[in-house]
């Protein structure tokens, strides 16, 4: 017999000593959970005694509630007639209700971002748009592609054009994949599953975020035949949690590899995101397959407490381990998964070289500065690619090298491939597509990029992606900015040392 | 006995099943033609049952109607008294009627573009102004000239200055020619023939566009003694059509060469032009000596239909062949014309070198990125010229090298000539001149460029164009950006292979 | 028996012949002092016959009045009831009284400067903000850091991060110190002592300005255990005054070194500061431990009088010696202080090398262009660091090298340390922090920089500051701009000469 | 007995057949002179039958009227009572009458230009401000100095600073001279004589323009003891006129050299100046010691008349010879003057080298692109200096090298001297000074530049201008842009040829 509560009763329990919330029509006593909430206690207390469904839903995957609360925490149900009528803040809740946008009329990714920016909440925008410090790396990620000139050849039959390729041996129709981007339901209820549906239409690969707002099972549901997924792992301080996640992923055969993220062991400083915490109510941010734990960013000096984590980006870091190393992490991972590993977030040729020594466990690397969201003035992937070509080109033969960051045009895709990348990831592009039009918006993003990529290949006189190479691009203006400091000059010694350490 | 129709009767035939249109006072049944219209069926259907003359006229050369419709398609004439009075949309149709501009007061090409932009329709502007993607190559085409410094010599008698030169042995008064620019009547009723008249006044060469809005015969009518023309060929998928065009051109002795365009085998992505399709009525775009055929830009993947062609630029590509090659196309061309060939759209030294192996059939090349309208971030002609000078300077002796793109000043003309170009083409400049003042506007453009070129030559201390050379320019800032990748470094091998293939 | 004056009586004495002023309720006859006022006579005469306390107070340290006036100059006290009620100019005096800013909401140094700019007087802003001529060096000081890319390493345990280091053997918690910035009380009554308190909280070093608006004794009062101070010396033309200052400093054991400033022997041209003299009343500017003397900037040509000193910056230079040399000044200094010397304002590798020959007296150098306030287009410290690395890297082993100028982010701090700097100074940052929120504002500045520095170190994979090095940064774009003229090329000869001169 | 005319009578003679004008109260019949007016007949005819004094006066030196008209052309005087009352166009004639500016408050040359721009007529502004085509060289002339960094040395006694130097052996107090800038009375009635008075105050040299608005005798009247002048020569097509001018100059012993201008044998395209012809009435422009003759800029092609000369700049070119050569002009000049020759307008190291072969007749050269007014994208003097240093540094020892163009700051002056220039010229700076405040305005310009130069020298640690050298500047960013084409690479051969030709 479920007990039915009146709202007046629930609303009295709004203190740390007795804290109730209403979720999906049920009434929960979360008093004991307050201290363990990865997003912090403050956020829960702000919603104590109220119906928190609207704030809770878009950022928590289903099932997470049951995993974290004891059965007796569920006290009963709410009498819906006693709920107060909600008044939406017009600025925050109903941005521009000018009807669904005409996706056909959006001709490029900038226009899609522009539409999405108007459609989604300020908080979602801040989380997606933000990047480290002064956004210099975010900007350079894109402009570095503009510095590269193309070299079209003429008198080449270009009636046919084939954008298909393979990732780790799995055939895909596009050299473009969707990067592990968190919290997709903030942009649109279609969420990560909507991205998966768009990817199915275009034969594109998707890497599922460790902080997805839907469960992996939901995301890969009804995958198309041959559809390829990867799954992103942020190793948790409590390793058992990660191990449980890996076991869960192992049951989903469409997930073909683990993408271990290394470029953000601690969160970058994303001021736009931090500022958004002051807008509207604080959202209790929670990720999909992750179970709390305390933040690793403790100040080294007890006198000076570090600024409190704030913004969605900071909250997502709760529990993430900062103590990963070549020596300890890869062997541990080998024990808990048979899937091949792709290391994400390499930014120097030294690390690319090191990674290439870990075959066959490591089958690929993603050159990434985390979309400029981690360390500002970190190098764009184009730099790291050129570094590799200069100092250790053999890496490109040993493992697959993927890149992300700054891709806005098909010409960007083609340039990355000419430089030696096997594929390119889009993160914000997919999220803004989702924000602009749900799964159809993501499909429009892929449609545009595919068409631009084909036009570029044809005008270069190239039929298949494997034909693309350095003879089709002029990288002079970028090459003169590539690192040539000690690590590059003394590499024979360094390489010898690296191998000896294995 | 011609039948006379009332407008009420015609206007009933506005469906795919029965589609009539009024053109020049005649009534046509175009039902059977809808599916064959190169500009697409949608455009015809929008005008079905109405008087389409105003939309049809400025972009279709005379005679094209008769060529495409069977005699029985002409049903009769319209009773003019039954026509509805037209109401022009003021924004689109009567831009700024502040009287004809004072051409003398326009001092440079930017000012002429500014005036033309106000005078011509939004649709015409979009077609002329647009370029690929983000317009980076279009902008760089011009700014790269600004990066080059001049080196004036003093104490040189500069009382005389002679801008005359020759193209393929034909004397001209200017090293400047009008590039094959399509659809001139969109800018002004004087159209391509107006350009020809202005060229006659200044002794300048003109290359007639394959997509001109007047017939070649109209354009070259009343040519001045010694006036020189070329004719641009876009090879059609249905080769017989191109062969017929070549035969027709052979009858016009003032046309001295065939300019085979290679830099746009598929259309670039010109978003300004694509956007303009949504402005006002859709124009049924049709080119002068071209007879339909289906677009070659078919998607390689049936699941993902390519975005539909739109904008004038896209429509013009209908029927254009994308399967041209050195091996097949030049021999085919040799069978159908005795005129010398100029290859337009080369963007790499490799292709320039290859072209130079095809003398004597190929007598010239035009370094061009199609005014930035094909592939964005393609190199400007200045880059390709410097590449040729670096890797295969002998090309400059074997064939004539012309350039286009970005020319706005006499100093730009002189710099191109110093770099080794024999002549420079202007495209948008001529069209905007036409838009600003008809044939007098084009003449003003040539007058300005001629005067600026003379002033520049005199201040350099140069009397004749053949004296211009690398000692008169400082190209340091551009030279360090020139391609030096594998194709350049391994050129001896490449050249050997290229010759072996012949 | 103190005589009590009415305001009416005092106000009659407002001429050079008889000049009285009211300060802190007392009436002084300053007629004899007018000619000796370092800030010029004009300023005193403007305030003659009035209560000058408000203008005098924020820029004169306590005790300075008594030091400069004879006892008999104090005539008596003012009857406060006779004073006119003051009317503040709203624009100048009450800038924005929107309450104290929420320091937590200010996320970076730019935002703090923005808030401070609104809080402080226009005159204070002009003095802090201003720099030489066109502010080119000031801007470049910052942007040069943005030109340097970071090279984050992955798979490095970054749970711990330690920003502590030492300056001249004294342990500090931060590699960041507060530069000798003058006139802090213009920004906030907390003044230089407030800066000291903030430094105590974060274990940061502070260098006390020679032109502080508080006495050294006040500033170091209640220093925290282990807190480290330096004291800046501008050598006075009347050396005896400097000698007296050094003797006074010797009594303060928390002051660990003398920072001899060399980069501004004559004042730069700070136009913003000069313009501010025309705003509101002229302030009689006076520094803390400095006793007048005439300006050394005399024109070499009696026909052409140099523009009069104006602005706070100019006034502070009164009495500063311009005749310092390696040969004479260091030996003189050795006679009057046992403290180690840090030379501030070196801008070439030649001078850095020379300084390194003067160990052990000279223990450190500060590469500085005086915040861009002395000579415009002088090189930023990053240039000088790279010059040293190129031409005389041994300097970095012989003496400590500190830098200042342009630091706005933790990444800037880390980059300077990677280049070989032992520490970085912030000047305007601390003053704007003071302006934004007094000592708490300075603390917020240090808190932000510490947190940003830690985030940067962790994301690079670095635990301790001594691990930072050139392998963590890419300086290609800066390196190609580094001086390589004769002084660099002929350095072996130059070095030999330099040593021979010793 | 002078005849007295009524205005009504005069105003009837307003046709080419009978053209009278009133000047300074006299009535002249200028019918016969119309065809010979260097500024063109149109301008006279616009003023025919009216009182032309206001238009005539500021641009014609005294005496020019009598030189050009026969005595009988003076018909009599006007009855002043019959003159119509004049109505000034407020926009053109009374710009901003906010009283004389406070020159002391103007802190730099930009501020002086800003004030002058408001004070002077639009026509005068257009003439001074304008430069060739897109003003690229004008802008680069200045920004190239900003690309050069200074290298201040410390621990150098800088109590003394001496800016004196010598030009061609004549002592001057400043390394700054006033360039030959035409039409000074357009800016202010003080005219070129006002400039001379300001130069006397600061011991600066002045080069008198060939197109001055006052006679040379007026300009040098009451010269200070030791004051130094040069005189600019534009050789006239009618050589006899130039010979007469040289003879006249020979009678003025304060004029120490002839500055032969070579950088503008034909006028550049100054669009701002050309546009100004349409503002207000057309001024009959006339230069000081120049007597008409026809323009040499004849079109090479009778079909295409060159655009008519317009704007003040174009008018001044009337009669200027374009046929000067090393072989013919210098020997001719030797016959007509004993004064040393300074060649102005060299822009390449080749020409600098050639000039150095013509010692002792040629004693100096001025590297100049005519203030960017001749050929746009011509190199700034800094480029030519660096070219000389690279390819033929011996030139700097053989002859004096002066530079002009772009000088706005004392740091610019110092940089030019470090590069090897003996002096720097200011043109627009002096004219805008005149416009801002007459002779006091020019003095303020010199005062500012002198003070800034001294501050810069002191902060560099330099006492005398001859100590300045390449060790004080970092020119890396400019050096990589310096010409290194064939003329540089093949210079040994070129030099040999050049000497052989002598």
Notable traits:
homotetramer; Flavocytochrome B2, Chain A, domain 1; 22 helices; four-stranded mixed beta sheet; alpha/beta; 16 strands; globular; eight-stranded parallel beta barrel; TIM Barrel; 502 residues
Topology:
The structure is a homotetramer of 502-residue chains.
Chain A: E1 3-5, H1 7-10, E2 20-23, E3 26-29, H2 41-47, H3 53-56, H4 64-68, E4 74-78, H5 90-93, H6 109-119, H7 122-129, H8 136-146, E5 149-150, E6 165-167, E7 170-172, E8 176-178, H9 191-202, E9 205-208, H10 216-220, E10 229-233, H11 239-249, E11 255-261, H12 271-276, H13 311-316, H14 326-336, E12 341-346, H15 349-356, E13 362-367, H16 381-391, H17 395-398, E14 400-404, H18 410-418, E15 423-426, H19 428-460, E16 473-474, H20 476-479, H21 486-489, H22 491-501
Parallel strand pairs in A: 1-4, 8-9, 8-15, 9-10, 10-11, 11-12, 12-13, 13-14, 14-15
Antiparallel strand pairs in A: 2-3, 3-4, 5-16, 6-7
Protein name (chains A, B, C, D): L-lactate dehydrogenase (cytochrome)
Subunit structure (chains A, B, C, D): Homotetramer.
Enzyme class (chains A, B, C, D): oxidoreductase
């Amino acid at each position: 017999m479920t007990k039915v509560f009146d709202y007046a009763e629930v609303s009295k329990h709004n203190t740390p000593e007795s804290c109730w919330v209403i979720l999906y029509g049920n009434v929960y006593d979360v008093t004991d959970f307050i201290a363990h909430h990865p997003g912090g206690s403050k956020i829960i207390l702000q919603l104590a005694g109220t119906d928190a469904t609207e704030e809770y839903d878009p950022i928590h995957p289903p099932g997470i509630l049951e995993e974290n609360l004891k059965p007796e925490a569920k006290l009963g149900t709410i009498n819906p007639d006693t709920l107060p009528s909600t008044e939406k803040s017009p600025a925050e809740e109903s941005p521009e209700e000018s009807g669904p946008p005409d996706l056909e009329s959006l001709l490029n990714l900038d226009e899609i971002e522009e539409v999405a920016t108007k459609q989604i909440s300020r908080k979602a925008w801040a989380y997606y748009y933000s990047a480290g410090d002064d956004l210099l790396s975010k900007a350079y990620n894109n402009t570095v592609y503009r510095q590269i000139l193309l070299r079209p050849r003429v008198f080449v039959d270009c009636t046919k054009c084939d954008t298909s390729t393979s990732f780790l041996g799995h055939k895909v129709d596009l050299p473009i994949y969707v990067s592990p981007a968190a919290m997709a339901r903030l942009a649109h209820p279609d969420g990560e599953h909507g991205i998966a549906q768009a990817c199915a239409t275009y034969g594109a690969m998707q890497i599922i975020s460790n902080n997805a707002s839907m469960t992996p099972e939901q995301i890969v549901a009804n995958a198309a035949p041959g559809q390829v997924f990867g799954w992103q792992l942020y190793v948790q301080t409590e390793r058992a949690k990660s191990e449980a996640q890996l076991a869960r992923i192992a049951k989903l055969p469409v997930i073909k590899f683990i993408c271990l993220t290394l470029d953000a062991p601690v969160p970058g400083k994303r001021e736009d995101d931090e500022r958004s915490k002051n807008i509207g109510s604080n959202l209790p941010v929670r990720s999909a397959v992750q179970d709390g734990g305390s933040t690793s960013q403790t100040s080294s000096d007890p006198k000076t407490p570090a600024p409190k984590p704030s913004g969605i980006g900071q909250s997502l870091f709760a529990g993430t381990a900062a103590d990963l190393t070549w020596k300890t992490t890869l062997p541990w991972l080998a024990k808990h998964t048979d899937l091949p590993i792709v290391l994400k977030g390499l930014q120097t040729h030294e690390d690319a070289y090191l990674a290439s020594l870990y075959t066959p466990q490591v089958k690929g690397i993603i050159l990434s500065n985390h979309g400029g969201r981690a360390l500002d003035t970190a190098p764009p992937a184009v730099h790291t690619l050129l570094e590799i070509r200069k100092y250790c080109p053999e890496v490109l033969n040993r493992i697959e090298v993927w890149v992300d960051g700054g891709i806005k045009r098909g010409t960007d895709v083609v340039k990355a491939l000419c430089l030696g990348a096997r594929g390119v990831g889009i993160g914000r592009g997919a999220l803004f597509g989702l924000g602009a039009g749900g799964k159809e918006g993501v499909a429009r993003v892929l449609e545009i990029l595919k068409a631009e990529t084909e036009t570029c290949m044809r005008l270069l006189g190239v039929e298949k992606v494997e034909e693309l190479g350095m003879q089709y691009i002029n990288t002079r203006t970028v090459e003169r900015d590539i690192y040539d400091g000690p690590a590059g000059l003394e590499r024979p010694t360094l390489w010898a040392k690296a191998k000896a350490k294995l």
